[in-house]
Amino acid sequence: MKVRFWGVRGSIPVPGASTQKWGGNSSCVEVSHGDHVLVLDCGTGARALGQDLFTRGGRELDLLFTHFHMDHVFGFPFFGPIYAPGFKVRVTAPGFSEEECRQKLARFVNGLYHPVRMREIPCELSFHPLMPGRAVKRGIFNVQGIRLNHPGGSVGYRVSVGEQSMLYITDTAPLAREGEGVMADKPPSSSEARLLKLMENADVVVFDTMFSYNEYLEKMTWGHAYPEYARRLCELSGARHLVLFHHAPDADDEALDALAASWAGNTAPTVTLAQEGGSVDLEG
Ligand SMILES: [Zn+2]
Ligand SMILES: [Zn+2]
Questions:
Q1: How confident is the model at residue 283 (pLDDT cuts 50, 70, 90)?
Q2: CA distances, 210 to each of 59, 144, 237, 259, 280 (Å)
Q3: How many domains does the structure of the chain reveal?
Q4: I need a labelling partner for 118 at 20 to 30 A (CA). Which of 57, 88, 101, 111 fits?
Q5: Residue 268 C-alpha to ligand 2 middle, in angstroms?
Q6: Average pLDDT over all residues of the chain
């Protein structure tokens, strides 16, 4: 299994000279196993992924959305495979019905916010609601969702094939109140306990660490976490590799270099930063 980062930013894409190294596109992560592809979120990074997919053999893929904030969906109408009649794209999103999932995306792929309407998309496009907590199969991938702590809601995913597993936990604030839960050395809150169970022995955990701890204290209701929180959850669950993700738009290359350096010595888990164009290979 391979995890590739096509967009690593949160909130808004920030292209330009000061973000060239770590990348300016918003959230889009590819999980692949051989020719099988599963895409997590469709931020602006999805455009380059779409182009890359045309150079490969597969003509079928799964697309999973955590939620519908712009930084996670804006790349969808620019994702090339949806315009290729031979492509089969299965969209999974939190929701109760197929129609609800379709409608949530169709609201902006409607001829007004984008020139193309959802019903005009030529690929074989299908929609699949996902209830957090229930394990489902998407192609060869085992997928399980979990409810996170974010304004309007967000769903994190565990994706596994055989013994290999990765988690995609964005966008979320800590799942316990300040002074409670694992960061206060107290028993985990019920939602922390659920997440810890899902993270158990994971190979890779991609986690929203948009804030520093101090920023989190100032913006607790914004729905984003900080590195020490993600690290603590990895320690407790035995997850081996933490990838810091959903970088703040203001975090330029210099700031992210400093963040990477400050975590370089951490073991159990290893801590690295998501970099656009970068990847983590679980096969070796
Ligand atoms: Zn976001
Ligand atoms: Zn969000």
A1: confident
A2: 34, 24, 21, 11, 20
A3: 1
A4: 57
A5: 28
A6: 97
Ligand 1 (ion): residues with CB under 5 Å are: 10, 71, 171
Q: Which residues, other chains included, contact 90 with Cβ-Cβ below 8 Å and sequence gap of 6+?
A: 60, 61, 62, 63, 126, 128, 138, 139
| CATH (domain of 222) | 3.60.15.10
6 CA to centre of ligand 2 in angstroms: 17
pLDDT, tens digit, 9 for 90 and up, residues 76-123: 999 999 999 999 999 999 999 999 999 999 999 999 999 999 999 999
Question: What residue type is assigned to position 120 of the chain?
Answer: E
Task: Please give the sequence-ordered ranges of beta strands (E in DSSP) within 194-251, or none if there are none.
Answer: 204-208, 241-245
CA of 86 to the centre of ligand 1 (A): 31
Q: Ligand 2 mean position to 163 CA, how many Å?
A: 30
Task: Provide mean pLDDT across the span 242-251.
Answer: 98
Which range of residues forms the domain containing residue 84? 2-281
Q: Are 66 and 35 in contact (CB under 8 A)?
A: no
